Amino acid sequence: MIGRLIIGDIRPSTPDFEHPAKATVGSQVSVRADVFKDGHEKLAVFVKWCSDAEGDWRSVRMTPVANDRWEGFICPQTLGLHSFEIIAGTDRYATWRNEVLIKYEAGQNIDVELIEGSLMLGEACLWDASATMADAAEPVKTRLESGIRAGIAEFFESHMSFDDETSSTQLKLWVDRPAASYGAWYEFFPRSEGGFGGATLRLDAIAKMGFDIVYLPPIHPIGKVERKGRNNTIIAGPDDPGSPWAIAGHTDIHADLGTFDDFDRFVERANDLGMEIALDYALQCAADHPWLVSHPDWFHHRPDGTIKFAENPPKKYQDIYPINFWPPSNDARIELWAECKQILEFWMSHGVRIFRVDNPHTKPLAFWEWLIAEIHAIDPGVIFLAEAFTRPKMMAQLAQVGFSQSYTYFTWRTKKKHITSYFDEVARGRASDYMRPNFWPNTPDILSGPLRNGGPGAFKQRLVLAATGSSAYGIYSGYELCENEPASDDNEEYLHSEKYEIKHRDWD
Amino acid sequence: MIGRLIIGDIRPSTPDFEHPAKATVGSQVSVRADVFKDGHEKLAVFVKWCSDAEGDWRSVRMTPVANDRWEGFICPQTLGLHSFEIIAGTDRYATWRNEVLIKYEAGQNIDVELIEGSLMLGEACLWDASATMADAAEPVKTRLESGIRAGIAEFFESHMSFDDETSSTQLKLWVDRPAASYGAWYEFFPRSEGGFGGATLRLDAIAKMGFDIVYLPPIHPIGKVERKGRNNTIIAGPDDPGSPWAIAGHTDIHADLGTFDDFDRFVERANDLGMEIALDYALQCAADHPWLVSHPDWFHHRPDGTIKFAENPPKKYQDIYPINFWPPSNDARIELWAECKQILEFWMSHGVRIFRVDNPHTKPLAFWEWLIAEIHAIDPGVIFLAEAFTRPKMMAQLAQVGFSQSYTYFTWRTKKKHITSYFDEVARGRASDYMRPNFWPNTPDILSGPLRNGGPGAFKQRLVLAATGSSAYGIYSGYELCENEPASDDNEEYLHSEKYEIKHRDWD
Fold first, then answer.
1. Residue A40, exposed/middle/buried by CB under 10 A (0-12, 13-18, 19+)?
2. Is the CB of residue B373 less than 8 Å away from at least one CB of chain A?
């Protein structure tokens, strides 16, 4: 049977009500719900909430907004999972007070109403007021005033009990540190500075530009087998570095970039400058990644005995092997997922708490749901940015299963009406309860229309739009140089891949 | 852990997913859902459904609409509760077929793809095609064609099995007879024709006007104690009939109107003319209703020993006593609710299967949820129209707990932009899955703006809007006479209550 009161459409929430909505420490959260019952009585509505770790339940009164919608504010002070529910019931005192005042003002006899009020105040142990109200020798006005005077409503509010108390289901709220929703990101290839030594020296300039987060594309050894050359040619020349995303070891550092000590000094210097380092978490392997030998069961096999490399027909990525996250053996799956978790723990032990996740939409949602929860159990301050430019339902679902931030369609929203409706959607749409936008005016490989055709003015305009349209935004390596040479007339990509190697020198 | 595939936002559905959405027998129902998974593989999606009474589960293939939204059509043929769920999995054959064709057209080598296809067809026992595909002596084109020729896709479609089959939660669909969503209603006071004898003679004229349902305001004995006079005066004159809603016995017929035999003949004649009778179900009592003596615990008591009559301060309805649907004793509640159900069963035994429910929003939603389910267990063809002109959330919730049809705000939607957005809302809004509008241009007491000021043209225009804007619509007694004299300049009510007694004579 449904409750005496109806409590519905509770926000913030996820569509499945099983995954948490999101908030950040110290920010006010508006909790809203439809609350109503039959008839015309007045209701009292509360949001009851706590940090799951602390179990410190407390209540906040909600107020009616319009059309049976109620709102109350909570302000979580600790990281991690919180719970909340809506509690509502009929406010007998407010109902009585409202009706007796209307009748009194209409000149109607209120003798019985005064006795009813006296009984209610008596039950609440407000003896003096109760006695005055019941005293027929007193003038009606005096009796009424003793039942509605200042303090009585407040008393009932703080001693509320209901005949018809109704609770909503319990909802979950995940509370992140502020960097999960706020920050300026700067992408940076350490190779362009000759490795972590030079990169560390660049950090001052990056900090001076006002960035909060320095994001590094993969810093790992790059596969040699099937390595690609410039502009996606099949055969690499002897000096071609290959694609950093053709990873030959997820817990190693590319020899060209330096040692772990160099990396640790780089992280430390960034922190000293008030910045954080974000690493790329790209779960895919070069042909000579050790997993292909140690765990061939983690990959897709073909009837000719080969392991399947990445394809998006007719495109082929011979230097990259996708992982099979649902291998036939469940033991293999458990081992694989645990190994993926180990990678994150490894880099967390080197001071990294932000990960930009490459192509999460090509890995199972169940994997992300498991992985992010596991990592948050170790450190609830770890932040995951989903690099998914894919279909809108998938992007929202990735946020629902746990990603802290999401890439968006901002890059392709260029007309006033599309900008207006898209900004409105990310700020106030259904998904805004759990999906946080991170606006980037360009991507590493896509030179979008306004940048390609607009020159430095367009670069500045798009940066301002990104920075003011979302509390998190970022730029890719080279953006501040306004690089806008396309690969060809009908190609959205940049002219050549060595741009990553030259741009910072130009900038000096 | 969430499923291998994601299935979400299933429609038709109610917001709480516990109450059923609605459909009618023989009508096509569009079932829609978001279905997607990681990566780029092709999916197969089905809606599986059955009548709960018959358990006749069957499957219909769904097709992609746009942006991961899928749609399939079902057409229930029996009354009552149905169940449905979405089943989805990766379509290995379609995925293979799509990729091999792209590669073949791009001139790539497809030897391994042909072996993969051959193995898949072999697993499906399509031996001939499998052998041809594996035969390296045959030209590639021949081998490919044997794997994609007509019939193979259909074979896989009808023998679909999935490694990653994922089911949604099971949803409910309540299937009504067509009159639940379709029909022209005509309100009619038998008293205006001198009782059921005269009323029976009027039925031909009503049928000729094209109506499907003849709705009667309460036909029960009217209370004598505290009876109201004309225009809400406190004291009734000796010939004043009182308000028919001041009911003095819910299973009796007012002596002025005739006997049960007269009523039965009236119902029979209406049925012969292809019409149905709808009765008013108004759960409230006159001061001399037998329940006030037999079950005083079903009412609200005041400290002065009186039973509380109806009020909406400062308005008082001294001739009507509201029922307390949550009396302090649970046994009393069970007895009361059962008695309310008995009233419906009583009139059902006299051939009535449609009830217009007076003011349902002032009775508990839990009561309606229970009552409608109980009645539908006896006869799933009984139809309940909710007369609630109240807050939108409550109106939708009444529909969610079981009402077949709902009064709407149509009466007050008079400007083009409001008409457009409201028609769109009732036809396509979230609530349209379970809330069916019934449009009435007037109400028994409210003479809305366009009718009051517009004359016969306005009456015709509003009727056409009602009849074309919703598949169910109705008019109150007197509408066809274009009665539009207001009670006073600042009053939306009609001039005098005897209009009910005179209009049909004027019409002849």
1. middle
2. no
The answer to whether the Cβ–Cβ distance between B112 and A303 falls below 8 Å is yes
**Catalytic residue, candidates B187, B193, B226, B358:** B358
**B116–chain A nearest CA distance, Å:** 7
**A302/B contact by beta carbon, under 8 A:** yes
Is A304 in contact with B393 (Cβ distance < 8 A)?
no
pLDDT values of chain B reduced to their tens digit, one per residue, 508 residues: 788 899 999 999 999 999 999 999 999 999 999 999 999 999 999 999 999 999 999 999 999 999 999 999 999 999 999 999 999 999 999 999 999 999 999 999 999 999 999 999 999 999 999 999 999 999 999 999 999 998 998 898 888 788 899 999 999 999 999 999 999 999 989 999 999 999 999 999 999 999 999 999 999 999 999 999 887 788 899 999 999 999 999 999 999 999 999 999 999 999 999 999 999 999 999 999 999 999 999 999 999 999 999 998 998 999 999 999 999 999 999 999 999 999 999 999 999 999 999 999 999 999 999 999 999 999 999 999 999 987 899 999 999 999 999 999 999 999 999 999 999 999 999 999 999 999 999 887 778 878 888 889 999 999 999 999 999 999 998 898 888 887 777 767 776 544 444 343 333 3
pLDDT band at residue A497 using 50, 70 and 90 as cut-offs: very low
For residue A297, give every residue at least 6 positions away whose Cβ sits within 8 Å of its Cβ, in sequence order, or none.
A327, A328, A329, A332
Report the distance separating Cα A291 and Cα A220, nearest Å.
14
Asked if B429 is an interface residue toward chain A (Cβ–Cβ < 8 A), one would say no
Secondary element (H or E) of residue B504: helix B499-507
* Cα angle: B82, vertex B85, B90; to 5 degrees: 155
Chain A partners within 8 Å of B402 (Cβ): none
CA distance B504 to chain A (A): 35
Q: Is A115 on the interface with B (CB under 8 A)?
A: yes
Residues of B in contact with A7 (CB under 8 A): none
Which of A387, A490, A492, A508 is the catalytic position?
A387
Can you tell me the distance from the alpha carbon of B461 to that of A303, in angstroms, rounded to the nearest whole number?
72
Are the beta carbons of A366 and B2 separated by less than 8 Å? yes
B159 residue type, one letter? H
Which pairing describes strands A171-176 and A80-90: parallel, antiparallel, or unpaired?
antiparallel
- CA within 13 Å, CB half, A130: 12
Residues whose CB falls within 8 Å of the CB of residue A318, separated by 6 or more in sequence, listed in order: A226, A228, A234, A287, A309
Cβ-Cβ contacts under 8 Å, B4 against chain A: 326, 364, 366
- Using a 10 angstrom Cβ sphere, with 0-12 exposed, 13-18 middle and 19 or more buried, the burial of residue B447 is buried
| Chain B residues whose beta carbon lies within 8 Å of the beta carbon of residue A397 | 6, 8, 36
CB contact under 8 A, B36 and A391: yes
CB contact set of A56 (below 8 Å; sequence gap of 6+) = A50
Which residues on chain A are in Cβ contact (under 8 Å) with B102?
Answer: 313-314
ipTM: 0.92
Scanning every residue of chain A, which has its alpha carbon at the shortest distance from the alpha carbon of B104? A314
Q: Hey, what amino acid is at B468?
A: T
Q: Looking up tokens 């060595």, which residue turns up?
A: A498
Decide if pLDDT at A255 tops 70: yes
Angle at A199 between CA A198 and CA A205, to 5 degrees: 105
Q: Does B296 reach chain A within 8 Å, measured CB to CB?
A: no
Q: pLDDT tens across B177-208, in order?
A: 999 999 999 998 999 999 999 999 999 999 99
Q: Is B262 a catalytic residue?
A: no
In order, the DSSP letters of B419-481 are HHHHHHHHHHSGGGGT--EEB-S--SS---HHHHHHHHHHHHHHHHHHHHH-SEEEE-TTGGG
Binary contact (A365, B6; C-beta < 8 A): yes
| CA nearest to A366 within chain B | B2
Q: Among this protein's residues, is B387 annotated catalytic?
A: yes
